[in-house]
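Lecture notes, continued. The same structure-token format from the folding unit now serves as the input rather than the output. Read the line below as a description of shape only.
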């Protein structure tokens, strides 16, 4: 097929073969094989990859990678979406622990380079989204693009061969202050000169730290990312460890009221943290790297292991006067000193029927787990689309059940 569509949760489940069927797939390795494990897609579910020589990955299934092109709001008037030179790659998989390194080439560029993929859900179907730009894209969004990808047990030293062609799906992106939202400058990133913006990972230096179980990832209304991130966190702590409060007190709508967010407006995140401490201080300890400069990225993995939740505030800049908040669900250090971060958020905010789900007629939302690459030396975050330069991390926010923190 020439057209690839973004996989739904039901489709993800269909991408994975049962163990018995995978063992009988054509080209499956013999038992005990120690191939490097480069997997080239063939259009359907992949057979079981060869076992790792080190035994680190436990791969149970990798489905197809899909491509989509990013569309953003057309300026301050928010009168529709326009195409950009940014794209998403979405990898569907099912496994336990470290899955492998994703590599992708599109056009003339090696756009995803050795980005680690780690499972959260202990064998359930998942997907990871990764943003990049291959350079100047055709104005005609119906033009097919050539690409190739692999999921590797070890890091690659060259781009994967391009064996496929597809017309990218359209993915509208509208998060806090992005793409022409209130206070944002918006527009499409053709002004950056057409050069590629790859997402560059690296070889892992440690075992990834991930949340256990299903993490809530609720749809967000316009500019509701802060209160939704707090709501996701509190609901996860309640479901995984117990909190002595009613579920209704942890909804985005209740948090909007408690923290003073007006409908459609962004909220001052530091003031919101102070109000949240007052509202929920008997249940959870909340800290942030503004008030605690020692709360650096190298401490976050241990906090996730201790079943604390971590949010990351992506700072405003000269293009985005409103920052954006995401929930960290996984983090790992790479040998070159960078960090691979998995973040849960809604990349297409909009109206919702209630605090939880969009109406059937309003399919505006796209809740995803997205992978960023963070460089602490210059505090830059790569993998956020619709920006002419790397975004900066404003702060990390940590929430732990009272008396739970280590």
């Amino acid at each position: 097929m020439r057209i690839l569509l973004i996989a739904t949760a039901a489709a993800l489940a269909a991408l994975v073969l049962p163990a018995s069927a995978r063992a009988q797939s054509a080209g499956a390795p013999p038992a005990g094989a120690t191939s490097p494990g480069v997997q080239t897609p063939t259009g359907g579910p992949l057979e079981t990859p060869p076992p790792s020589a080190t035994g680190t990955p436990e791969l149970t299934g990798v489905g197809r990678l899909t491509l989509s092109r990013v569309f953003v709001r057309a300026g301050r008037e928010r009168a529709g979406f326009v195409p950009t030179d940014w794209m998403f790659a979405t990898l569907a998989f099912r496994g336990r622990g470290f899955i492998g390194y994703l590599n992708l080439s599109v056009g003339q560029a090696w756009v995803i380079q050795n980005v680690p993929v780690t499972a959260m859900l202990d064998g359930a179907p998942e997907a990871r989204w990764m943003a990049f730009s291959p350079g100047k894209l055709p104005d005609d969004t119906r033009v097919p693009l050539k690409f190739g990808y692999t999921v590797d047990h070890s890091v690659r030293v060259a781009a994967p061969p391009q064996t496929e062609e597809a017309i990218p799906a359209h993915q509208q992106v509208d998060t806090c202050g992005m793409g022409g939202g209130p206070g944002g400058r918006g527009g499409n990133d053709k002004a950056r000169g057409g050069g590629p913006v790859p997402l560059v990972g690296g070889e892992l230096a440690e075992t990834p730290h991930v949340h256990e179980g299903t993490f809530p990832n609720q749809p967000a209304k316009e500019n509701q990312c802060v209160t939704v991130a707090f709501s996701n966190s509190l609901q996860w702590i309640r479901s995984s460890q117990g909190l002595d409060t009613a579920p209704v007190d942890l909804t985005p709508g209740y948090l909007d009221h408690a923290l003073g967010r007006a409908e459609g407006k962004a909220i001052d995140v530091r003031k919101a943290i102070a109000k949240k401490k007052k509202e929920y201080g008997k249940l959870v300890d909340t800290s942030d790297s503004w008030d605690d400069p020692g709360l650096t990225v190298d401490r976050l993995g241990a906090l996730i292991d201790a079943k604390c939740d971590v949010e990351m505030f992506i700072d405003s800049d000269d293009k985005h006067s409103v920052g954006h908040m995401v929930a960290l669900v996984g983090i790992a250090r790479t040998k070159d000193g960078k960090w691979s971060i998995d973040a849960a958020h809604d990349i297409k905010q909009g109206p919702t029927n209630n605090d939880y789900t969009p109406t059937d007629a309003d399919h505006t939302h796209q809740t995803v787990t997205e992978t960023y690459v963070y460089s602490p030396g210059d505090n830059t975050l790569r993998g956020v689309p619709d920006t002419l330069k790397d975004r900066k991390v404003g702060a990390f926010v940590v929430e732990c059940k009272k008396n739970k923190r280590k």
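Point for the exam: The chain has a mean pLDDT of 78.
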